[in-house]
Amino acid sequence: MSQKQSSMPWWSPRELSAGQGIRCVLGPLSLQLFRSADAWRVWTSREEWDEAQPAQARMTDLDAMPADEAAERFVFNQSPARVCLRPMLADRPVVVRARQSVFVPPGEEAMLYLSTPVWISIDLGDPARSLREIPVLPMSDTWFGPSTREGELCYAARTHARNHLEQVPRRPHRAITPVKVRNEASSLLPIDRLSLPVPLLSVYGDADSGLWTEEVHLTRAADSDLAGLRVVPGVPNMAPRAERLSGPRTEPGRGGLVRAFSDLFG
Amino acid sequence: MLDSILNYMASDQVMSVLRAVMFLLVGFILARFVSRLVQRMVLRRFTTHHAMIFRRLAFYLILGLFVASALRELGFSLGVLLGAAGVLSVAIGFASQTSASNLISGLFLIGEGPFGTGDVIKVGEITGEVLSVDLLSVKLRTFDNLFVRIPNETLIKSEVTTLTRFPIRRFDLQVGVAYKEDIERVRKVLMDVADRNTLCLDEPKPLFIFNGFGDSSLNIQFSVWAKRENFLDLRNSLQIEIKKAFDAEGIEIPFPHMTLYTGSVTDPFPVRMVGEQPSGDVSSDNGK
Question: According to the model, what pLDDT value does residue A258 have?
């Protein structure tokens, strides 16, 4: 049974009978779920994590309840058998900071691959009901806006902003967003920090190539502080066989203009 | 006897009293009805607070008109009454100076709107959540759950800090390190701590200010930003983490210390041995 399960990606649904559980280690997060006849128990723990180290997703079956007392208990009349760990994107935009400075010359466009850590929603039953959402990797808060009075609270993440797909490391707990940046202004566009509107994106999963989001096009217009944002609907070209796992958290506002580039900051 | 009573009942005086009472009753009911209507209409465009004020205004205006009519029915001449009121108002004005000043301050305060219901403000020594902004006073709930009424005049005159106006806040940590420490290393340790703390905002960047050479320490201000709601958590977690990081790195936070000087440039303090202790121990104690 475990053989069969290990070939499945970590986000695929599983059926558990009462008295069984699963343990899921996903990068820094380790999550244990155990089903009893009238309750589900959830244990979460995290270890110190360096994002440079390779991450793995490991699913193992539990036949006995973990002894640790510090569990969260979700009670039911009769506990549902089906459980699914569904990847979601963060609930605020993620500001990614490039480890090396990246510049886009005037009139050029470039494709960058940015990855952001996902959240896990523990879905039980059929139709699925979400018990709770857990960020795999807690991200630091950051502020993105022209001043300390206006702006938006975001999450901060670091990235290599790789521009070749084959260089992008496959990490099971991060979703890759292909971002096409186009500079239509007459000056150089430095991308030290880029705000990625992940609440507008969906998550797609592919058993071989991992998690993806839709492709995002950011266009810096000639005379504007804001960037034009376009989310290309559907599966990204790089993972044509991926299936949609969860939808966007919020609908995009009208106009599709966002503050996306950091050189506009202060 | 009965006839005279009946005659009296039907007389103009009684009828006018009845009419006056009718005026008052109708006025009261109408004022309540209209004021509620006004409140409902105003609520669509303004805050609850403004709606309440408009409601009261409408209520007393309508009631006042009907009271004036009732008085006229009773045979009072309004001109004389108003004249008397003029004299009276001077007297009342002097007597109710404080209330009047609070009232006017309240109007300005509501117009200016430096804070609203639900905001957290700091006035003098008092910090609390605003429960209501009224014409005479502002009511606060402090964080130790006390109800505080502050007269509007005080608020207009004094400095009021609204803590919940902007979404992010800065925490300024004052810390001193020993003179032997390398400032650059201290700076790096502090920045690493801020970087690891998830509540600490990445941007605006933490600020490191070297405040100068203190009496016993090198004084440093380390300012970090946090989401307003996380301010207290950040303050706690950051200071604990900084202490841990300093301990791990061997960076000393010195106590205030004082060097005694006997007056002559060269002569040391005379040290006299007490008891039978070996001399080596005493000298090492003195070294500390």
Answer: 63
User: Which of B166, B195, B227 is the closest to A141 by Cβ?
Assistant: B227
d(CA B128, CA A124) in angstroms, rounded, equals 43
CB contact under 8 A, A139 and B230: no
Percentage of chain A modeled with pLDDT above 90: 1
Q: Do A97 and B227 touch (CB under 8 A)?
A: no
Helix B48-73 and helix B97-112: axis angle, to 10°?
Answer: 140
- Element spanning B18, H or E: helix B12-43
Look at residue A250 and give its three-state secondary structure: coil
DSSP string, A78-121: S--SEEEEEEE--SS-EEEEEEEEEEE-TT-EEEEEEEEE-EEE
Residue A197 distance to chain B (closest CA, Å): 17
Instruction: Tell me which of B287 and A55 has the higher pLDDT.
Output: A55
Over the stretch A76-123, which tens digit does the pLDDT of each residue have?
A: 888 888 888 889 999 988 888 877 888 888 888 888 888 888 999 998
| SS3 call for A258 | strand
Nearest CB among A97, A140, A148 relative to B198 is that of: A140
> Closest approach of chain B CAs to the CA of A13, in angstroms?
32
Higher-pLDDT residue of B221, B9: B221
Q: Which residue of chain A has the CA closest to B201?
A: A142
User: By C-alpha distance, which of B100, B202, B266, B206 is closest to A141?
Assistant: B202
Please judge whether A148 and B166 are an interchain contact, meaning their C-beta atoms are less than 8 angstroms apart.
yes
Cβ contact (<8 Å) for B199 and A265?
no
Closest listed residue to residue B170, CA positions, set B120, B222, B130, B106: B222
Residue B245: strand, helix, or coil? helix
Minimum distance, in Å, between the CA of residue B229 and any CA atom of chain A: 12
Mean pLDDT score across all residues of chain A: 81
d(CA B158, CA B247): 43
